[in-house]
Structures are given as C-alpha cells and as structure tokens.
Amino acid sequence: MASAKNQNSPANARRAKLEEARRKERARERRVRIITISASVAVVAALVAGGGYLMSQANEKEEKEQQAKTSPVTGERSWDDLGREHVAQKVDYPMNPPVGGDHNQVWMNCNADVYTAEIPKENAVHSLEHGAVWITYNDKAPEADVKALTEKVKSTPYSFISPVKDQKEPLMLSAWGKQVTVKSATDDRVAQFMTKYIQGPQTPEPGAACTGGLDK
C-alpha cells in the first residue's frame, strides 16, 4: 500500500492538475462545438426562412401580374377594326386621344420618353401599334399626378407621356384599341393597364422599335 506521503507527492499533484486542465479543455471544446452547431443551425434556418419569404414574394408578384393581365380594366373602352395604313396627311380620329387607325410612317419614341409639349397624334398612334402605352393629360390634371405619372414612365419601357389639351378628361391612358380614364396617379388601374397592354395581346406589331423614331 502506498504511503500517504507518496499519494501527496509533487508528481501526483502535477498529474492531478494536468488532468483537471485537460478536463476543463475538453469541456470548453464541447461548449464551442455546441455553440458553433447551434449558430450554424440558426443561420441555415434563417436562410431557409428568408429564401421562402423571397420566393413567396416573387410568387405573389407573379400572381398579381398574371391577374392584372387576365382581369378586365374597370371602365376601359375598346375599339376594333382600326386602320393601319401609313399616311402623310392629318387623320380625323373618332376618339381623343386616338387609340389606333391610319398613322404616320414614323413613330414617336416611346422607350420611357417624356414630352412636355403636344406631339403629333399620327406619330403617337404608330407607337401604339408597336405595343406602347401612351399616358396623356390636359390642363386640369393636378401637377402632382402629372409628376408621378412622368416618373412612372421614366422607369417603364414601351411607354410615353405627353399633354393633349383638348382631351375630355384630365388623365387618360391609351394602348392600341384600348383606353381608360383614371382618377389620379395612384389609381390602381394605371399599373393594371400598363401591365396588361404594354406589348399586350392587342399589339399589332409586338416587339417593334420604340426608339429611332420622332423625338419631339
């Protein structure tokens, strides 16, 4: 039997301290592993949740766009059998602004173009034939609405805006064969009309140029 003196020797004490240090180090490593794994799980969960949210948002946006394309625009008017001949003279259109008919052989630039003065209607109609939406306003339109619609046009290809002083209503949107009067720039029908009719199924020449035409 070892003596008490041997059990309490300096060597035994050092071994005991070393074992204790090793035990503490193993415990610390276990804690680090647990924290690392927990953090990794949390990150993965966040990424999955974030991805699911983004996917949900994308799906929701796509569904809204699809609904806008398939649902009728409240209050819109439609015209069929519109002429499409190129002419050099002025055209007496049956609606104002015109939504189609014979037109000048040169189109108005309509790639997010803003016109602050009136433009030739015969050239604007040619732009509609290419699938553009034309936003128009008269002197009664609130300045804030004109500004907001102008900003919308600036960010929307195949659209253009100009004043038409002799139109009946303050704010109107026209596409080939389609037209709607809106109450304000925040009217939901603005976005719906543009989503549905920019390069929409009514377009006689989808994909035709909206640049390289008349710019003033």
Automatic annotation (TrEMBL):
A Pfam family this chain is assigned to: DUF3105
Keywords per UniProt: Membrane, Transmembrane, Transmembrane helix
Sequence segments annotated as region (Disordered): 1-28, 59-78
Polar residues: bias regions: 1-11
Amino-acid biosynthesis among keywords: no
UniProt key word Transmembrane helix: yes
Membrane-spanning segments: 32-55
Ranges of compositional bias, category Basic and acidic residues: 16-28
The protein's name: DUF3105 domain-containing protein
Species classification: Bacteria, Bacillati, Actinomycetota, Actinomycetes, Kitasatosporales
